[in-house]
Predict the structure.
Amino acid sequence: MAEDVIRSIKDGNVVLEENGEIVTYKENEFYPQHKITSIIRLQKEDFVQLNSNQKYLTHFNLQCADHDKGEIYALPLILKHGHFDGKKEILPVLSFKSCLVVECVEIKEHLNYDELTEEDFKYSFNEIKNVDQLKKAILRRYEQSLPNLTEEKLISLGISVTKLKILHTWEEHLLNL
């Protein structure tokens, strides 16, 4: 398996669009205040497929996802893409409106594509139901955010699989804070 690629600087900030304004929050304040561990950012193509009536969702990521079983995550929409060229990072602008809040129930990391099973695709997005479709989705997601990596390099990095239990919408989550 390929050596882990650094995908961000992890400066500790999250950038949101709120009421037409771009606002930056410190993750170590925003996440605890909202009772989430972290976020899993989704592109529009994936976000529009979210369904709060679903029981589970499988999310695929490059190499490793840094998700932990039992932890709570929000799935915000990427409004404006960010990128990381290996040195400088521009954070994406996110929206939490109508996003889902989920619990990680299973995580598998550093997998080759040929190690994936039918079960891994059971709860994935509609356009990701096999390895070829997954590779296309990975390229769609990461060609913009990691412009310094070739298509071949992105695919060679392998994959992680996170199975998520859907708890409720962000708006329902906020009512329970």
Remarks:
- The mean pLDDT is 91.
- Helices lie at 27-33, 44-47, 118-121, 131-145, 151-156, 170-175.
- Strands lie at 13-18, 21-26, 38-39, 56-62, 72-80, 83-84, 89-90, 93-111, 159-169.
